[in-house]
Amino acid sequence: MEDNSKRLAQAFLDGDVHSSWMIIQNYVNEGMNSYYIYEELLTRAMRHIGNLWESNDITVADEHIATGVCDFVLSRYSFQYVKREQNKDKRAIFFCLEGEEHYLGIKMVNALFQEEGWDVRFLGPNLPLEYALYTIQNVKPHVVGMSLSLSTQLPQLKTYLDALENIKEMPSVLIGSRLGPLIDTSFISRPSVHFIHSLQDIRMWLQEESLQTN
After folding, report:
1. What residues contact residue 94 under an 8 Å CB cut-off, 6+ apart?
2. Which of 50, 63, 110, 187 could link 122 by a cystine bridge, Cβ 3.0 to 4.6 Å?
3. pLDDT tens digits, 161-204
4. Domain 2-81 in this protein, CATH class
5. CATH class of 87-213
6. Distance between CA 118 and CA 195 in Å, rounded?
């Protein structure tokens, strides 16, 4: 699997949309589900690209090319294989904190919720708090998903959470971060807030949510 994710990473870096999609298509034909496609292929490939960037083996421009191709592949997969029936009584909104540009992970989470029949809205990267609150107050989602990648963003995260607490019916909040479980989140003691460290965490959350509502 590692070789295949690296092969996919190279196709991303080459800007090769066709080869990238054919790698994904082959796994779909073998019966692999969305969690596998997202976690074992797309996420691993982009993580490898991130490692190459950190070691100065590629440039920021290379990373941007790879991100664009990965985004296209993710969007195409979602369009072709994710069901469109949505339950208007299960609404979710996903976005990145202001200043956060790494959006692929939260976009995958958005797609997984959509696959489970949720009515979802993906608001993209770098969303200022005022616009997040405006949308939340109008849509009234049951779930709000946010993403961050730097520990320096934790105080900003607290500001967003404090603002959400002022909403009449605070939604469940899922916080995705590639920082991993070692970050200090002791300042968050809200029962409605959950940290998500992998897409398997999302799978477990959705399963538990389904059991509670059935």
Report:
1. 106, 107, 109, 110, 113, 120, 121, 122, 123, 144, 145, 146, 147
2. 110
3. 999 988 888 899 999 987 766 667 777 777 788 888 889 999 99
4. mainly alpha
5. alpha beta
6. 20
